[in-house]
Design goal:
Layout lengths: L1 H28 L4 H22 L5 H29 L3 H12 L7 H8 L4 H13 L17 H16 L2 H6 L13 H4 L2 H17 L7 H12 L1 H14 L7 H29 L11 H7 L6 H9 L4 H30 L2
Helix pairs in contact: 1-5, 1-12, 1-16, 2-7, 2-10, 2-11, 2-12, 3-4, 3-7, 3-13, 4-13, 4-16, 5-7, 13-14, 13-16, 15-16
Length: about 350
């Protein structure tokens, strides 16, 4: 057990925390333009990663839909829990909105994608073995979506979690943020359509379909190489950017509401995800039966910190910005401990 935890800390979380720290150090030494860094990630690196991972994914079509479906369900369940707590304790609307955003929407991009890539890299050797095993096995109508492929390519799975989370953040999240401010406008909902994630997802799915039609089909080199090079830069750029963002506004928090977020986001959320996935597995619901893979990855990344996008929404709609910033900062800091424990538990539980 001790060796397993040591391996996780140094081999998985170590690179993540070090790159976040380097970003914070750069922020303290230089006047970095945070807006430019964010746009670099949002409009170039992450879309290229999504296209590269989706087009080359070994995940079945059913599992892709299942990952999106289970992510939506998780967000809704967490929202109900937060709403119940708010009603029971008569929390003010601005505070409740900030807590709901911090609990429901997690950092599936800057933190979740690198974590998925490092914890479940999906090596080339695994892809070859998976392709060989698929040619010898004919899936049955009752086969679980996650069991048709043995490759644990965390990035390919997390790309769909990221897409779903971004879509929900800029639709459902906008509505929640609007609880604290009456200035919510129709134009706000068009922002999700202006982001490059959905077009790149569509392009990646189309490319994947075309590549699977004939083994001789190949993407043009200038597309595949460019996407591959940019995709490979996601881990360092995303984590350095996260470090810069965190270093911008450290503060001593209001511990009462922040503690609620810490418990729900880092502990309750993965427990809820595990119970939900296991329940659908026992019920044999084909569309949402992701056990054991990609359930293992989805459980892990459901325990990541609060999404930074929730702070941006709160700032724009004049909500409880101090609380929103506190939630992003402290969930990220304390996740170093909780994610180590969750990954160790998953390694033991799934025998990976």
């Amino acid at each position: 057990m001790g060796q397993l935890v040591t391996t996780i800390v140094f081999d998985v979380l170590g690179p993540i925390l070090l790159m976040i720290g380097l970003g914070a150090l750069l922020r303290s030494r230089f006047e970095l333009d945070l807006a430019t860094l964010s746009k670099f990630n949002i409009y170039l690196i992450t879309p290229a990663f999504i296209f590269d991972k989706v087009s080359n994914s070994t995940l079945s079509w059913a599992a892709m839909g299942g990952v999106a479906g289970i992510t939506i369900l998780q967000v809704l369940l967490l929202g109900l829990i937060v709403y119940g707590i708010g009603r029971a304790f008569r929390v003010s609307r601005p505070t409740l909105a900030a807590i709901a955003l911090a609990v429901m929407f997690y950092n599936s991009g800057n933190y979740g994608l690198p974590l998925a890539e490092l914890a479940y890299p999906g090596t080339a050797e695994e892809r070859v073995l998976s392709a060989e095993s698929e040619s010898d096995v004919t899936p049955t109508p009752h086969s679980a979506p996650g069991t048709q492929h043995s490759v644990k390519d965390g990035g390919a799975v997390q790309a769909f979690v990221l897409m779903t989370q971004n879509l929900l953040t800029y639709t459902v999240g906008l509505l929640i943020a609007g609880m604290a401010h009456r200035g919510l406008t129709r134009e706000s909902f068009t922002r999700v359509l202006k982001l490059p994630f959905l077009p790149m997802l569509a392009a990646g799915l189309l490319a994947r379909w075309w590549l699977n039609q004939d083994p001789a089909n190949q993407l043009p080199i200038f597309i595949s190489k460019t996407a591959g090079y940019l995709s490979g830069g996601l881990v360092p750029t995303a984590l350095v950017t996260l470090g810069v963002q965190l270093a911008a506004s450290p503060r001593w928090p209001r511990w009462k509401p922040v503690s609620v977020v810490l418990v729900l986001r880092l502990l309750v959320a993965p427990v809820l995800m595990t119970a939900t996935l296991w329940g659908f597995h026992l019920l044999g619901v084909p569309a949402l039966d992701l056990w054991p893979w990609p359930a293992e990855l989805v459980i892990l990344t459901s325990s990541v910190p609060t999404a930074i996008g929730t702070l941006l929404l709160t700032l724009e709609l004049e909500g409880d910005t101090d609380l929103a910033a506190d939630c992003v900062f402290w969930t990220t800091v304390l996740s170093a401990v909780t994610i180590t424990l969750w990954l160790a538990a998953l390694r033991i539980g799934f025998g990976s």
